[in-house]
């Protein structure tokens, strides 16, 4: 496994392995302390000689020395490992943050490009009568009209332009382009006489 800070990017499983190793070391330290506890409660610093300076004969000196030595070594390993875990977590978080920022930037760029690619609307649908030619064609309230037959933002002056196109196109399908919920939608609209007013409704 590459060390954190090496050339390979740290993964979540690397951190999990480090944590597993940390747990193993902690279990070994605990076992060593229990061994010392079993030797008449000799800890890390109690003397191993009696009042006269002779080695104590009520404990297993070899076992106590080995346990003490192991605890010191394991604690050093534990400290180093904790540093590795911390570094690995830092790297993971930094990468997560970087990815999040990149995703946000991409989403923003996409939204911007969509906005730029949407043509300018010159009118907005504020009412559609049910059963009318406009309703049948699929026009909806709040659709923003970008093109209505030959009328677009460049030649539109007033609603009379649309009325003229409608009168000239009675019974013939007109191509209408609208912006609906931020997307361009094409609608085929045929102006014709119906039960209500006008040719569109």
Automatic annotation (TrEMBL):
Keywords: Chaperone, Coiled coil
GO biological process: proteasome regulatory particle assembly
Keyword Calcium applies: no
Gene Ontology cellular component list: cytoplasm; nucleus
Highest taxon of the lineage: Eukaryota
SMART domains on file: PDZ
PDZ domain: residues covered: 90-182
Alphabetical list of Gene3D superfamilies matching this protein: 2.30.42.10, 6.10.140.1710
Coiled-coil ranges from the UniProt annotation: 71-115
Alphabetized InterPro entries for the sequence: Nas2_N, PDZ, PDZ_6, PDZ_sf, PSMD9
Record's keyword annotation contains Coiled coil: yes
PANTHER family: 26S PROTEASOME NON-ATPASE REGULATORY SUBUNIT 9
Role noted for this protein: Acts as a chaperone during the assembly of the 26S proteasome, specifically of the base subcomplex of the PA700/19S regulatory complex (RC). During the base subcomplex assembly is part of an intermediate PSMD9:PSMC6:PSMC3 module, also known as modulator trimer complex; PSMD9 is released during the further base assembly process.
Assembly with partners or alone: Interacts with PSMC3. Part of a transient complex (modulator) containing PSMD9, PSMC6 and PSMC3 formed during the assembly of the 26S proteasome.
Family affiliation: Belongs to the proteasome subunit p27 family.
Name of the protein in question: 26S proteasome non-ATPase regulatory subunit 9
């Amino acid at each position: 496994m590459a060390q954190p800070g090496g050339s390979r990017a740290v993964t979540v499983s690397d951190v999990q392995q480090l944590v597993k190793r940390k747990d193993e070391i902690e279990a070994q330290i605990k076992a060593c302390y229990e061994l010392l506890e079993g030797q008449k409660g000799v800890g890390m610093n109690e003397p191993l000689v009696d009042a006269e300076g002779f080695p104590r004969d009520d404990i297993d000196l070899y076992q106590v020395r080995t346990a003490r030595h192991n605890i010191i070594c394991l604690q050093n390993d534990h400290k180093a490992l904790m540093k590795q875990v911390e570094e690995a977590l830092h790297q993971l978080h930094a990468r997560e943050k970087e990815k999040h920022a990149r995703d946000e930037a991409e989403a923003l760029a996409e939204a911007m490009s969509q906005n730029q690619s949407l043509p300018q609307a010159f009118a907005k649908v504020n009412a559609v009568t049910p059963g009318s030619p406009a309703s049948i064609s699929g026009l909806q309230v709040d659709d923003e009209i970008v093109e209505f037959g030959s009328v677009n933002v460049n030649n539109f002056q007033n609603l009379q332009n649309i009325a003229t196109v409608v009168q000239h196109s009675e019974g013939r399908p007109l191509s209408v382009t609208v912006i609906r919920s931020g997307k361009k939608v094409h609608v085929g609209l045929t102006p014709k006489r119906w039960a209500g007013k006008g040719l569109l409704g």
